[in-house]
Design a protein that fits this description.
Layout (H helix, E strand, L loop, with lengths): L2 E6 L7 H10 L8 E8 L7 H7 L5 E5 L4 H11 L4 E5 L3 E2 L5 H10 L3 E11 L3 H19 L10 E5 H7 L10 H11 L3 E13 L4 H19 L15 H4 L6 H16 L7 H43 L2 H30 L8 E3 L9 E10 L2 E16 L5 E6 L6 H4 L2 E4 L2 E2 L5 E4 L2 E5 L6 E8 L15 E8 L2
Parallel strand pairs: 1-2, 1-4, 2-3, 6-8
Antiparallel strand pairs: 4-7, 5-8, 6-7, 9-18, 10-11, 11-17, 11-18, 12-16, 12-18, 13-14, 13-17, 15-16
Helix pairs in contact: 5-12, 8-12, 10-11, 11-12
Length: 484
Amino acid sequence: MHFSVVIPLQSHRSCALDCVRGWVTTQKLPSTEYEIIAVLPASDPDRLREPIAALLRPHDRLILSNAMHDVARYVEGAAAARGDFLFFTESHAWPEHDVLLEILAEFERNPNWTAISGRTISVAPTRLSRAEADHYDRDIHNAMTGHPWRKVLNQMFITRRQTYMDAGGYDPELQHFAEWELAARYFDRGFEIGFAPHITIFHHSSGDIAELSEFTRSFVSGEIAFFARSRATASVIWTQIPPEWATRGTLDHRLTCALAACLRKALLTRPRPALLPTVLRESMVWSMLATGGAGLALAAAEWRVKLDRLLLAATVVAGSRAMSSQRFTAWVAAVIHLQRLNEIVTRLAASLPADDRSEMLAADDQYAGRMVGFHLLESYQSIPMRWSGPAAMVELQLGRGQKRIAIDCAPVRPPLSKVKPAFFIDEVPVPNDRLSYSEHGAVIALQERSPGRLRLAWVCEPFAARSDRRRLGLPVTRIAITKD
C-alpha cells in the first residue's frame, strides 16, 4: 500500500464530510493502494461517527480517540498506518482532483526527498476569513521558499513512513508547535523536505476569532513548553528562541525588586555627576516594574490584544483587503505576545529556576530566567555576547571556597576601568578596594560568606552605539564565580 491519509476530525469547520468524501472519490490511484485513517474524538460531539463510517471503504479505518489535541490524533493515526507514505492533512482541507499519483511522480523525480509539503488553496467566504487566509498564505509561502528548515505543513505534509519513525514523529505534548519541532528534527538529521507548489488541495479559512485565538494559544503553549525543557541536543530550532523567553527574568518579581533596591541605594551613595541621570532614570523604570510586576506587562499585553481586535474589526468593515491583512497580522502578533507572557508567568509562579551554576555564559539561553536588564543574544567578532541595559542583574550560585566574581566583556566599549560601573552584591554596594580591572573585564573579591545564591547587579553610563537606539550597558560574554 502506497499511502495512509491521516485525518484528525476535531477542528473540521463543518467540512469533515467534504474532506473524507473528497479523498474517497477524487483519486485515480487504485483504492487498494491508499487508506484513509480518520481519527475522531471518542465523545463524538458533532455526531460524525455514522456519516463518516458510511463514506469509508472496507479497508479504511475510523479510530475513536481520547486524545485532547489533533497533533496527538496524528500520532495515533500514524501508529495505525500501513502505507509506505504518511499523508497528514486537516479535516477542513480536501482534494478536488487527483493528488496521490502526482505525489508518487514527484518522489520518483526527486529520490533524495524524504517528504513533501504541497500548497493549499484557501476558500475564504468572508472578509475576515480572507484576511486570515492572506496572513497564513504569506507565512506558509515564506516558510516554504525562504526559511531554511520550516518545511512541515500540517495542511498537506507527506512523508516516507520510515523517515517519520526515524525522526521520532510528532511530539503531542507540543500541540501545534509540534509542526515546527518536527521540521527542525528532519533538518537536523539531514532528511530533505521538498516543496511542490503545483500539488494542491483546498483549505477552508473560517475567520472565527475564537478558533483562531485558540489555535494561536495552543501553538505558543507548545512553544514555551519546548524551550522550557533542558537543551538535551544541539538543534537548529534553538535559533528560534522567542524574545519573551530569552528575557523572561524581567518577569521575575524577586529580581526586579532586588534591582530596584540596588538603584535606590545607588542614589543614596551620591553617584558621580556623570552617572546620576542614569541612576535616576533606571531607578524610576525598575521601581515601576517592581511595583507593577508581571501584572503590568500582562495588562499592557491584554490591552494591546483588545485594541488590535477592535482595529481589525473596523478595518474588515471599512478598509481594503491589504489593510485587513495587515491588521490581522498585528492582532496575531499581539495574541502571541500575551500568551507567551502568560505561559512564562505561570512557570515562574510554579517554581524558581532550578539551577546551581556559578557561571553565566551569554550564549546560554537556559540561564535567562536568572537575568534581568539584558538584551537578546548577539555576537561581536564571532564572540557571543549580550548587551545589558545601563542597569542589570544576574543571579549565581556561590559554592564552597569560591572567592571572587569575574565579569568578562566583549571589546566593544572602553575598558571597565574607564566606565566604572557601580556594582552591588545582594543589594549591598561593592567598595572600590574589592574591585580590580582587566582590559575588558572586572574582578570582585568576595567577603567570607556561606554557599548559596548570590545576586550581582550594576549600573553604568549608557553606551551610545552607532545606529543603535537601544539603551546599552555592558557587552557581557561571561560572568563566573571562581576560587581564585
